[in-house]
Design brief:
With about 375 residues, this protein is mainly α. About 75% of the residues lie in helices and about 0% in strands. It comes from Stigmatella aurantiaca.
Amino acid sequence: MTHALRQLLEEGRIREAREAATHQLSQDPEDEEALLALAKVALVDARPEQAEQLLSRVKSEGAQREVTLLRGAVAIQHQDFVRAREHYEVLIRQPTPPAEAWHGLGVAQLALGAVAEAREAHEQAVALRPQQSGFRFELGMALVMEERPRAAAREFVRCLRLDARDARGYWALAQLLGQRGKVRSARRILEAGLTQAPQSQLLRETLAANQEPSEDREEAPDVALFHQASRLVDRKRGREALTLLREGWEQGTRSLPLKLLEAEACKVLQPPDMPGIIHAYEEAIAFAPEHWEPYTRLGVCLLKEGHRHEPRAIELLETARRLEPGMPETSLNLVLAYVKAQRIAEARALAQQVVEGLRPGHSLYEEATRLLEVLRKV
């Protein structure tokens, strides 16, 4: 494809690209660069049938890699994700697969329910094109599906740093905040997004739907209580939040998020109620003994309280890692605990395992690699 056509497409100047390619094709009906450009324009316009007709006219061997890539996109628009996966797998088996092939494979795998494989594919895409905001967004969505909201949020933030007008990034962050009951914070994110992308229908509709819970709106009791107490915590009204949460718990309105929120309410008191924080986390562990999060939160909390708490903190973080061995965050927390306890050999060995288990595009790869380098020098 000529530099002029490619540049027009990369800059999103679709109308000009269509006109230029159409002109080229009028001069030479077999101009493959123009055919490929018009196929891309057809995909942007959500006209996959027209894109396939144009691709069928591209015969040269040198253009088949791009043809296969675009046929994968055609299959995705047809929601034929099995066929899309087949096209992209052809490309990733090549010596130097394009980042777009890994990205497309990730989209197809996620649609087919292969979440781990989708995340790995998106990590590869990000490793090859770390400055591509859309790749960061798709990796974040895969991490959401793996129930790793913090890692997902990091990718959405990176997406927006690369392209502040990407409405999807604001939408995704707002969804994560809403799931944690932070309704006001979610609204602020959506409002910030609309200042950057004022024409976004996605943000406008989400903002309209993301109203504060009202008396007329039916919610599960634990969700309603979480929303109500979260707003108090956000306003630093910790004692009122604690009263609500503890009364609700006594009356049978119970969930893990509610007990974790109780610890957050203790943190916003002046001074913070450290015994209350620890007690809330202990009760969260008793309530959900097979969930990694309360073990992690209590372990990290105790690490900050001095050396005498280190054995208990390490025990908790080891339990979190046992419950979620595939989650690198649980291992990295344990590495830091080992370091604090001067158990350097164990920290180094575990950090090595973490780095070996991460692909270069993973959101924690750089952090884990730096940590391992430091430990090797100790």
